[in-house]
Amino acid sequence: xxxxxxxxxxxxxxxxxxxxxxxxxxxxxxxxxxxxxxxxxxxxxxxxxxxxxxxxxxxxxxxxxxxxxxxxxxxxxxxxxxxxxxxxxxxxxxxxxxxxxxxxxxxxxxxxxxxxxxxxxxxxxxxxxxxxxxxxxxxxxxxxxxxxxxxxxxxxxxxxxxxxxxxxxxxxxxxxxxxxxxxxxxxxxxxxxxxxxxx
Length: 199
Description:
It is a single chain. The chain has 7 helices and 7 strands, in the order E-H-E-E-H-E-E-H-H-E-H-H-E-H. It has helices at 20-31, 51-56, 82-87, 94-108, 134-137, 140-153, 175-180; strands spanning 5-10, 32-33, 38-44, 59-65, 75-79, 114-120, 159-160. It has a 5-stranded mixed β-sheet. The longest helix is centred in the middle third of the chain and has 15 residues, at 94-108.
């Protein structure tokens, strides 16, 4: 099914602040519902596999962690032709290379949607199994506000959910479950989480 509006979170939940984009989409889905022509998607690190979704969209809003070279936790909204430039200014991970290719392919095919990017400056990425650092986690709610404002300009109105659990997927990496299973800092390896290390 095609959607005219794509709201996409990209990044890797297993690398600390790299998971910001995915956590934003989770939080948006938990708190808001949208019409059927709006698709909320956890894009993870899928790269070119996201091309069919991007091609079908008329407008696309992306959440991601971006190295702006600014103080950690800085939040910015970038729009239009500036989005690909910022996503590639300083690559932090392979997912950004992959997503740049998605945008380039969509552009070549003449099917690149109108773009907006809500990005945050990460604090730390090199923590395998780690979660969002507090300055980045604190920007999830402001990021959703920025996104909802941008969507309203596009004529998209989110409806607050009466029951937040309606929008949540109950998977092992959902933020609450993930955090409740994380070992105490004194037990965790400094650069990782033993749940995700080969035994």
